Amino acid sequence: MTTGSLKPSKEKKSRKSKQVVVLDEKTPLLPTKKDGVDGGFDEFDGASFTGAVFNLSTTIVGAGIMALPATMKVLGLVVGIAMIIFMAFLTEASIELLLRYSRTAKSVSYAGLMGDAFGKYGRMLIQLCVIINNIGVLVVYMIILGDVLSGTTSSGIHHAGVLEAWFGQHWWNGRFFVLLITTLVVFAPLASLKRIDSLGYTSALSVALAIVFLVVTVGITVFKLISGTVLMPRLFPDVTDLTSFFNLFTVVPVLVTAFICHYNVHSIDNELEDNTQIKTVVRTALSLCSSVYVMTSIFGFLLFGDATLDDVLANFDTDLGIPYSSLLNDVVRVSYAAHLMLVFPIVFFPLRLNLDGLLFPSARPLNSDNLRFASLSIGLIAVVFLGANFIPSIWDAFQFTGATAAVCIGFIFPAAVTLRDRYGIATNRDKILCIFMIVLAVFSNAVAIYSDTYALFKKNPTQRE
Questions:
Q1: Per-residue model confidence as pLDDT tens digits over 132-167
Q2: Please, are residues 234 and 383 in contact by the beta-carbon 8 Å criterion?
Q3: Any transmembrane segments, and where (predicted)?
Q4: For 17-26, which contacts have Cβ atoms below 8 Å and span 24 or more sequence positions?
């Protein structure tokens, strides 16, 4: 992903007015206008507001939503919901800083903005972080799909997958084979699309499937509330000593990952028909996703309480104590599995773009080089597939990516660009906010890493015994 700019004589507002863009080594990998690089863009007049909202919403609502009920188990409902809302506002503020400095620097990519502020190494650093984060997120998607379709084992208890429940255990519905077929039949074709706006309809469908999951979960919980079979949930965290206090911070990487969408904002902005709407797109998408997050966290935790697993979908394999329990379990799991399949290419798109920018910074645009495009796509899909078969749980993946790459992408880098303030446009309020974001991000994630490491070393002696 490289830095680029348009002719200074005319400000970019609508894609409907045809303008000529000079192509050189600084042209962005994602076209910002209709150009002649790839004939496939000749009829592209820009993405709609609705399509942009759905694409950004799909970027946000991915696998993180499945781990949010488990964060309520750690924080309690009151603190947990407050943290989700707080993270939404903090995310909106960091994206606003990114967009403001991108406009001023005439950067059409996150990497271009980091390059403008910190030079070549700044550009390479953000590209590396996006690669690490997105690989981790896609691995989580595949892990969840494996859990849903083939089952998972937690604390010695096996939770049967949908295919296991329907057909029994066979070699062809084992995790490896199911993920292999899903990768070849679903992920590979969707990942072969060269323009993110081509995914507008699949994004809309994926958001609809996420809402189906939410509606069914809410309906089940309300039924059980009326029948009086839901226990009173814990409202506040249970802090008894210093270790339990530090354990509260382990949810921070999960919450950070749940809201990371910064790597796709520029791509969506570049394709938006009227890019003055991008701030409204961001606010609309964040409002929609925050509402879904809050509802899922409340009703998911109410439904399963302290038995909530790291991946709440794995809880939907038992008798829920309501009519048609088995059918509803399958609807919940299958609808969200389909949602993740459709989200996969949205996250894969910037992953491929950033890896290409890191490895081939001076090459011609990726969408005009089919061999490079195919090679990167195949290599990345293979890495994600292997990771999903060897990493044990989504909580482990979230802890790693959320505490490292995700927090840099979402908060540390936007704050660093603002504090660098090459163009003198930062206000005192901006600088105070940025210092707060950096201190909060570094402290919270450092404590989270310490707590996870401590728990790991404390657990190992027990396992050896």
A1: 888 888 888 888 888 787 766 665 666 666 777 677
A2: no
A3: 49-68, 74-99, 124-144, 176-193, 205-226, 246-265, 285-304, 334-353, 373-391, 397-420, 432-451
A4: 25/362, 26/2
